[in-house]
Amino acid sequence: MLELNMSFTALRDGREAERDPLPGPKSVRTPAVAGTRVFVGRDPSTCRPLLTPHDWLFVSRKHLVFEYSEDRGWTVEWPRGTRDTPVAIVRIKRGETSQDMPYGAILPLPARTSGSILVSDLARRRSVVLAWRAMQPIRPSDSGGIAFGGVQDTIDVGPDQLRAKLQGVRLEVLAAMSCDWIHGRATKRPRTTDELCEMLYMAKATVERCKTELRRDFYSSELCPELNHLLGPDYLDTTPHVHGGWDLIAQTAVVCGIVGGEPCPCARRGGSID
């Protein structure tokens, strides 16, 4: 799975911003199937939904190509066009490293990593910001079995093992804490234990116990290595981990199919959380 989130920035005066507002953010999730290609650029026939403004001519019609192959995994290419010298700057961040991307280069996006790509004009006044996250690729198992939700088993059996471990109350708490990823970021998940108790009709002590157990389960599952980096070895003895950690846990739970297949608990409050 490759997740791409695109946004736009520009240095303009108030009149320009009012006359020509920037497009809203765009996102797409693409399964890791051999031969899959995702284009970013100005060509409306091939670059939807990651289409850039038609008058941003520093962006090529097909500026970036994300492709998945069995032998190389996910890669990103900046294809060479008719110009010998590009009129854009492309900078890529992968993990902790950041570098200018050479014109015509093809770079790997290793599984279980995230980063961003910045495409800007030479004056650095207008930019396309593309955040990416490469998840563990989905492949057929040796037995050809199908996992929960009709998704083929992954090489890493972690999601199935973790889901089997999270039955009952813990799974319900996880779904409630992940509902913004289940339904889309416009839906607000409960941010406090009190809101969770109100949604799930559970005692506060039960919810707090489940949250602690869930953080421990995801921290040790190897499904979310960013969580290990964020929380550190003594995370249960600290407090700043709560919200940052939950964003990663919720996204991982939905992408790996651990939650999202059953009715969401937020339906008890009319289908959304205000």
What about the largest sheet?
Answer: 6 strands, antiparallel
Shape field: elongated
- Tell how many strands the DSSP assignment holds: 10
Q: Name the helicity range.
A: 25-40%
Work out the radius of gyration: 21 Å
Number of helices: 8
Mean pLDDT: 77
Strand-pairing-aware structural class: alpha+beta
- Low-confidence spans: 138-157, 236-242, 270-274
Distance between the termini: 30 Å
Biggest sheet strand order reads 2-1-10-9-6-7
- Which percent band covers the strand fraction? 15-25%
One letter per element, helices H and strands E, the order comes to EHEEEEEEEEEHHHHHHH
Note down, in words, how this protein is organized.
A 6-stranded antiparallel beta sheet has the order 2-1-10-9-6-7, with no helix packed on it. Strands 3-4-5-8 form a 4-stranded antiparallel beta sheet, with no helix packed on it. The chain has helices at residues 14-19, 158-165, 169-177, 179-183, 193-200, 204-219, 225-231, 241-255; strands at 2-10, 26-30, 37-40, 64-69, 73-77, 88-94, 97-100, 106-109, 113-121, 126-134. The chain has 8 helices and 10 strands. The chain is elongated, with a radius of gyration of 21 Å. The chain has 274 residues and is of the alpha+beta class. Strand 6 and strand 7 form a beta hairpin.
